[in-house]
Amino acid sequence: MSFARSGAVEQPKPRIQRNTPRILARRGWSINTAAKRLGCDVGHLSRVLSGERSSKSLMTRVNELPNLIS
User: Fold this and answer.
1) Residue 10: how many CB atoms within 10 A of its CB?
2) H/E/C letters for each residue in 9-64?
3) Is residue 45 part of a domain?
4) Distances (CA, A) of 54 to 3, 20, 60
């Protein structure tokens, strides 16, 4: 059996999701440390940050992380 591609065009990721890994790094957070602080799985956080999954509440909490670099 053969499966045809749906032909759907992948939409560009929202700016916040494209930039969030850089934002974490600029604030001094690694994805592992941020996931622990946020109480979520590293894989889930990674998928949300990459735009593969959607979670407004997690993105809000990511944006509320304090700066660790002065």
Assistant:
1) 6
2) CCCCCCHHHHHHHHHHHHCCCCHHHHHHHHCCCHHHHHHHHHCCCCCHHHHHHHHC
3) yes
4) 27, 13, 12
State the pTM of this model: 0.67
Residue 13 has pLDDT above 60, yes or no: no
**Domain presence at residue 48:** yes
Query: What pLDDT, on a 0 to 100 scale, did the predictor assign at position 41?
Result: 95
Number of domains observed in the structure of the chain: 1
Its domain, for residue 31, covers: 15-63
Mean pLDDT of 62-70: 88
User: Residue 32: its pLDDT value, please?
Assistant: 93
